[in-house]
Amino acid sequence: MKRLIILLFPLLSSCAVYDAITLTGFDPSEYRIIAEIRTDASVYYNTCPNTPMSQANAQALAYKTQLFENYSLEIPNNENTIKAAKDLNAMAQGLVTRYQQDQNTPVLFCRLKMKNIESTATIIQHVLGNRPR
Amino acid sequence: MNMDQINQALADLANCNDPAFAQAAQNIQQAAQAAQAGQFSTQDLAELLKDTQRQLDVVQEMSQLQFKETLNTAINGLLVIIGAVY
């Protein structure tokens, strides 16, 4: 076993090992926010035909994606999540901007946006849930 | 690449085994059809295509993070074994 351990370590780059050792552990608050974003997007999908309600929902969702980005931002050794949070926030902000430009935003546009946000949040949630405890 | 080839590539992706890629391809197909039917502006279509690009970036970042998580688990396991041996 000792030989196996000694043989295994040089195969990995020192950066990869360092990143893995210093990896941020499971954060229940971070996990909760991403779970809420996923849930909200799936529920708000159904309100897309109601424009005033949908516009309010888009803003509420963009607030949470902004919160997720800001929350992740100052956690050390968290670069992958920070980049993912920025992308997710950009997706949600895009819907808010669209409603601000034109009240008659197509229902299909809203639905596709909500689907995109939900599936992206699901991918992030899956990985954050596997963080070491 | 012409429009037929793009549609074929999207159809192939929509039928692939990865649910995230299949969903993304279906969304692009739906958005492209809506744009062709005049329901969407080209700006709307561009924004949805940007979403797909963002989603691919997220998949890449999360794959890296998952690799680190697996490595972390393996290293911790090895440390436990080393601790047990010595």
Features:
heterodimer, A: 133 residues, mainly alpha, Four Helix Bundle (Hemerythrin (Met), subunit A), B: 86 residues, elongated
Can you summarize this structure?
The complex is a heterodimer of chains A (about 130) and B (about 90). In chain A, about 75% of the residues lie in helices and about 0% in strands. By secondary structure, chain A is an all-alpha fold.
If you had to describe this structure to a student in words, what would you say it looks like?
With 133 residues, chain A is mainly alpha-helical. Chain A has helices at residues 2-8, 14-21, 28-44, 51-73, 79-101, 107-129. Chain A has one domain (25-129): Four Helix Bundle (Hemerythrin (Met), subunit A) (Up-down Bundle). The two termini of chain A are 26 Å apart. Chain B is mainly α and 86 residues long. Chain B has one domain. At the A-B interface, helix 1, helix 2, helix 5 and helix 6 of A face helix 2 and helix 3 of B.
| Assembly context of the chains | heterodimer
Low-confidence stretches of chain B: none
- CATH-defined fold name of chain A: Four Helix Bundle (Hemerythrin (Met), subunit A)
Helicity range of chain B: over 70%
The main sheet of chain A comes to: none
How much strand content do the residues of chain A show? Answer: under 5%
Q: What's the layout of helices and strands?
A:
The complex is a heterodimer of chains A (133) and B (86).
Chain A: H1 2-8, H2 14-21, H3 28-44, H4 51-73, H5 79-101, H6 107-129
Helix pairs in contact in A: 3-4, 3-6, 4-5, 5-6
Chain B: H1 3-14, H2 19-36, H3 42-85
